[in-house]
Amino acid sequence: MKIAIFPAAGGLGGATLSHLLHTAKVDPSSVVLVSRSPDKLDKEANSGAITRKGDFDDPDSLKGAFEGVDALNLISYPSFQHEHRVKVAKAAIDAAISQGVKHVFYSSLAFAREGEPTYKPHVMLAHLDTEAYLESLVSPTFSYTIIRQGLYTESYPIYTANFNLKEAQASADKELKIRIPHDGRGPGIPWAKRDELGEATANLIAEYDRDPNSFAFINKLIFFTGTKTHSLNDTAAIFSKTVEKNVRIESQSVEDYVVRIGVVPKSDSVELNRRWATAFEAIRHGEASTVTSHLKDYLGREPEGIEVTYRKMLQG
């Protein structure tokens, strides 16, 4: 069958693609890479993969983008918005089904426990709506798998007021404070390395490719997470060990948090910061704390510990 990844040039999509070709050993000629900049995928095209243009923000570009494709790995629109993110996801799903796609692997986010969440952070709203839309489309000719991808180990700056390991190591200060609207206590987060999430996703897709009829996650949800949770205090302690300085969480009010420029990377918007602050309330409710063995199972090994990942990031 033919397998498509859209968008194929981003961080998670790129990792999934690399492992689909090199780890899962899927025939490159059966892989369709849809990207708004297909010229950036020359290396993959030279390996035999098919490249096509497709842009979330240009619905017309999706006409024909999924022709001949049996299964699509749909990765969410790279934005923090809610309504627009849902709108373009639905358009991509509709385009895929109209062109004959039989199964969608939707890369969602592990920021909501299975079942009805007790608290929904802004960042999860579009994912939950897209998941519900996929569920509503199930038919004898269409199915889905929702992959709730664990919070990236590498994404720590957005949960730590833009804390930076390299800057922390270079700082003359011996004690560094991370001021966020959270006291650092659990429930925690089972951080997961992005490349390993891509590898596990590739192996999951390859399993479906080998035998769709016996695939265990038809119309189901799977969590890819680390095998252990770390509270934000635990995470700060690992920062301390990594940079050899005392790093600690200092709780502050949401109002004090949102007016600080730069607490969300690349943002100077109080409103964006306020929407992002809902993530800390969700962490407090345990919405990011789900732990499963699925990442380990689909890697065939223990996931990389966050201590190792942070050390590599500091050295890189």
UniProtKB/TrEMBL annotation:
It comes from the Eukaryota. It holds the Pfam family NmrA. Residues 2-273 form the NmrA-like domain. PANTHER family: NMRA-LIKE DOMAIN-CONTAINING PROTEIN, QUINONE OXIDOREDUCTASE 2. This is NmrA-like domain-containing protein. It comes from Kwoniella shivajii.
